[in-house]
């Protein structure tokens, strides 16, 4: 029976490419009956990556237990971010770079997690440790995941290890980091082509904080005015989605990838707590200035967790 490998819901570039790279690692390790799949369609940035390296997008699944009894997780571990029936299958391995929460297994498993910029950084290390082959195409996919998650190493999540490994990936892939990286990041910022739901949910994750269900979405742009022009519609969409899905609070982080700043928008009963997490206040336009904030994982979730659970 085929083992399915997948990243989190609303997959970004690192989630999809790390599933592909971990599948290739498994095949070279002798575990050939594996398949990289996805828990959602590729976003525009990821489509750019797959097209550039002429790689086929993994097929999308809604549930896993109807196909297999064994899965491998990449780029996530929290069950609310995983496949809907995650508790009905055995988790054979996890490769990740996030916090560990809401996670348990009945059987022992392989677990590798490091506080680095992307899951592909960890997988690249594992390839090197085992002496496995990384093709130019695979190196390009892995580099793209790292570029995406660290905004071309501008994010505070980028570690010295990432800064060392990314040029190695790029050399194998035969790409110029700056020109390819910027083109890739810009490919994901065509907001005119996105619906309100695409923007608020395209890269959104759920978290439990202080007993509350918190939804945090993030969208990249090269001009925050493109978001401001649609603010009312986006807030309405967030309100409706929170009501429909039972979120206590919904925060959207709009990130200017060129200037490494963000603006926050929130709906729910705890807007004051959200603002307090960043020592800021929502202005008269219902916007929360977040200078220097680009990373949900490192700069958004930890301070919010502290305030909501304090």
Automatic annotation (TrEMBL):
Pfam families assigned to the protein according to its UniProt record, in alphabetical order: DHH, DHHA2
Give cofactor(s), names only: Mn(2+)
Q: Which GO terms describe its cellular component?
A: cytoplasm
**Which EC class is the enzyme in?**
hydrolase
Q: Cite the EC number.
A: 3.6.1.1
The DHHA2 domain extends over: 181-308
InterPro entries, per the entry: DDH_dom, DHH_sf, DHHA2, DHHA2_dom_sf, Oligoribo/pAp-PDE_c-di-AMP_PDE
Which reactions are catalysed by this chain?
Answer: diphosphate + H2O = 2 phosphate + H(+)
Q: Which domain of life is it from?
A: Bacteria
Question: Entry's SUPFAM superfamilies?
Answer: DHH phosphoesterases (SSF64182)
- Is Transferase a UniProt keyword of this protein? no
MF terms from GO for this chain are: inorganic diphosphate phosphatase activity; metal ion binding
Tell me which UniProt keywords the record has, alphabetically.
Answer: Hydrolase, Manganese, Metal-binding
User: Record's NCBIfam families?
Assistant: PRK05427.1
Sequence similarity? Belongs to the PPase class C family.
Concerning PANTHER family, the annotation shows: BIFUNCTIONAL OLIGORIBONUCLEASE AND PAP PHOSPHATASE NRNA
What is the protein name stated in its UniProt record?
Probable manganese-dependent inorganic pyrophosphatase
Species this protein is from: Lacticaseibacillus chiayiensis
| Source organism phylogeny | Bacteria, Bacillati, Bacillota, Bacilli, Lactobacillales
């Amino acid at each position: 029976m085929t083992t399915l490998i997948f990243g989190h819901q609303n997959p970004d570039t690192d989630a999809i490419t790390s599933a592909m790279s971990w599948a290739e690692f498994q095949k070279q390790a002798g575990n050939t009956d594996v398949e990289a799949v996805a828990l959602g369609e590729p976003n525009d940035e990821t489509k750019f990556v797959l097209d550039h390296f002429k790689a086929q997008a993994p097929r999308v699944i809604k549930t896993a237990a109807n196909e297999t009894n064994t899965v491998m997780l990449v780029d996530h571990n929290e069950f609310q971010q995983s496949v809907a029936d995650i508790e009905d299958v055995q988790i054979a391995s996890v490769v990740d770079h996030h916090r560990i929460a809401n996670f348990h297994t009945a059987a022992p498993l392989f677990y590798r997690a490091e506080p680095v910029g992307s899951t592909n950084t960890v997988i690249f290390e594992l390839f090197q440790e085992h002496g496995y082959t990384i093709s130019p195409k695979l190196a390009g996919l892995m580099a793209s995941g790292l570029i995406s998650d660290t905004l071309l190493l501008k994010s505070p999540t980028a570690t010295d290890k990432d800064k060392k490994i990314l040029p190695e990936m790029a050399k194998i892939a035969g790409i110029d980091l700056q020109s390819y990286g910027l083109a890739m990041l810009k490919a994901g910022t065509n907001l005119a082509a996105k619906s309100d739901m695409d923007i608020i949910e395209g890269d959104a994750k759920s978290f439990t904080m202080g007993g509350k269900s918190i939804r945090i979405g993030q969208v990249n742009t090269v001009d925050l005015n493109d978001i401001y022009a649609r603010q009312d519609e986006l807030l309405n969409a967030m309100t409706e989605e929170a009501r429909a899905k039972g979120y206590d609070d919904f925060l959207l982080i709009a990130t200017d990838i060129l200037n490494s700043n963000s603006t926050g928008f929130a709906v729910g009963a705890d807007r004051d707590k959200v603002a307090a997490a960043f020592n800021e206040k929502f202005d008269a336009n219902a916007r929360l200035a977040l200078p220097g904030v680009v990373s949900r994982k490192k700069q958004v979730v930890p301070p919010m967790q502290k305030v909501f659970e304090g």
